[in-house]
Amino acid sequence: MATAHSRSAARLMMAPAVVLLLGWMLVPLAMTLWFSFRKYLPLRGGDLGFTGWENYSRFISSSSFWPSIQATLIIVGSVLAITVLLGLLLALLLDQPIWGQGIVRILVIAPFFVMPTVSALVWKNMFMDPVNGFFAHVWKAFGAEPVVWLSDFPLGSIIMIVSWQWLPFATLILLTAMQSLDREQLDAAEMDGASPLARFWYLVLPHLSRAISVVILIQTIFLLSIFAEIFVTTAGAFGTKTLTYLIYQRVLESQNVGLGSAGGVYAIILANIVALFLMRIVGKSLER
Amino acid sequence: MGRIQLEQVTKSFGNTEVIHPLDLTIEDGEFAVFVGPSGCGKSTLLRLIAGLEDVSGGAIRIDGVDATELPPARRGLAMVFQSYALYPHMTVRKNIDFPMKMAGMDRAERKRRIENAASILNLTDYLDRRPGQLSGGQRQRVAIGRAIVREPAAFLFDEPLSNLDAALRVGMRIEISELHKRLATTMVYVTHDQVEAMTMADKIVVLNAGRIEQVGSPLDLYHAPRNTFVAGFIGSPRMNLITEDEAARHDAHTIGIRPEHIEVSDESGVWNGRVGVAEHLGSDSFFHVHETGLAETITVRASGEIGLKHGDRIFLSPRADVIHRFDAQGQRLP
Ligand SMILES: Nc1ncnc2c1ncn2[C@@H]1O[C@H](COP(=O)(O)OP(=O)(O)OP(=O)(O)O)[C@@H](O)[C@H]1O
Ligand SMILES: [Mg+2]
């Protein structure tokens, strides 16, 4: 194992990567912090000097702030719940020896290769369009009034689109984890009289707990910053304005870099709170 | 009770038949050992008995009741796997408890049986550990504990000792034999280690390519192997199988003589040859002898005091009363 010598050598070898990563992280962070304390309106006078905490108080007192936090948490939470549950189900199915397994697996993974912007546009125009969309045709075929998805169920629609994108990821990770479960353990449980449901509960689920935590952790990081899906569908209307989207509006639509940067700092704090919370849960599941 | 009968049992995977029609009875309380080379179908046969695989044909009876269609849990058998198959996230106590919990047994009775099994198997101090924190031998004992508490009609073991080191294997072998004496429950034990087979078995079943070659007590198989396969498989070092002129002299296609049934001398004997490899174990020495005029290399077992080396001249005399004779099909001649 690691001797003192090999440890210090390892440190030396890792140093460039660590320095690079630190710089990568620290420079934007420092710039965000810097701008968040300045009054910076690119089209209305440029950099107008320090304003103290004003950007922070304005960002938080805006009427859109708390709804945006709420929208963010609802989207992240729902997508997590849907992808993990459906992912488990799909992984269980794909783990069975079925005909055409290889092709089915590729099909399941395919959505992950579609760019978010493209998939959101496809959903918006080809599925959810109230006149020409696929769903509208299905509804009409049954004699029902087509649903105007994006304005009647804006959050639900976005959750649906994002879940569709992330389901392959969850399925893939859970499937590989499931395949690493020792078959003899399942045989032993069968001999011990465990029903399929009991085998799932006592063997498969504990075995998958790590993989589930990893899926939750990684997805959360990416889901907190979803943007394209909102941009091309509702453009932040109908209560779908997430924190990320709010920051975008402050910086680009209102041309207020200082205010947007303050929002960025709030986003960092939110991400850290969520991460801390998740690490607790994950840490617990890793201990077992 | 635990009398297991197989009647014309077959098993095919796809188009390949890996178990050919096979009849076998294992009596109540018997310690039956399946031996055979790798891939001959030992594990498959055990899994058929356990119910983890469905038979392709024939019937399995347990205590006279047709169990062919019964699910594994209802056959009243317990199995110990080669990989132990312990549940990694449960403590030893919960592992042992699992089958009883699944059977919905009373909590106090479960506790009593866990404690009892733990004391039989010397696991009392480890009950609150997880399998990952145990040594190989301890894990093996937990797997056995999990099997014991169900009080099964029979135990099925699939190469339970093959993951242990040699010293531990000898120890566990004795423990399992003692357990069998104590519980007097039927045990079916798969191994490819013929020392395990000879020392533990009441009845050995020698399998080869999905067929039973011979069934009998260890000494039956040793003294009267029914064919050349069994003759070569049982006994260590292997029996010398000699063909051609020397066999013809005994009116047989092949004759077999065990290494321990050949007298060694450095002065005179029936055959003389040159020592190839000499293996000195201290108690015994094994010599592989070439240039005897026979078609085959002859292995002999001699007392450890004989100090012959590679290249030395050696004289061999087979004991005439223990020569086995086989016909052209490899079947034993009377
Ligand atoms: N699920 C399966 N599908 C197809 N063939 C199988 C399957 N399981 C076993 N076999 C085949 O059946 C034959 C017997 O296998 P089995 O596992 O019973 O051998 P074994 O005697 O236990 O060997 P070993 O000593 O190596 O464990 C082998 O030829 C194997 O390839
Ligand atoms: Mg096997």
What is the annotated CATH architecture of the domain at 65-240 in chain A? Orthogonal Bundle
CATH topology descriptor of the largest domain in chain B: Rossmann fold
Average of pLDDT of chain B: 90
Spans of at least 5 consecutive residues with low confidence of chain B: none
Shape estimate of chain B? globular
Order of helices and strands of chain A: HEEHHHHHHHHHHHH
Strand order of the largest sheet of chain B: 6-7-8-3-9-10
CATH architecture of the largest domain in chain B: 3-Layer(aba) Sandwich
| Largest inter-chain contact set | A-B, 18 and 25 residues
Unreliably modeled segments of chain A: none
Rounded radius of gyration of chain B (Å) = 23 Å
**Mean pLDDT figure of chain A:** 83
Q: Let me know the CATH homologous superfamily of the domain at 65-240 in chain A.
A: MetI-like
Tally the beta strands of chain A: 2
CATH class of the largest domain in chain B: Alpha Beta
Report the structural category of chain B. alpha+beta
Q: How big a fraction of the residues of chain A is strand?
A: under 5%
Q: CATH superfamily name of the largest domain in chain B?
A: P-loop containing nucleotide triphosphate hydrolases
Helical element count of chain B?
9
Biggest beta-sheet profile of chain A:
2 strands, antiparallel
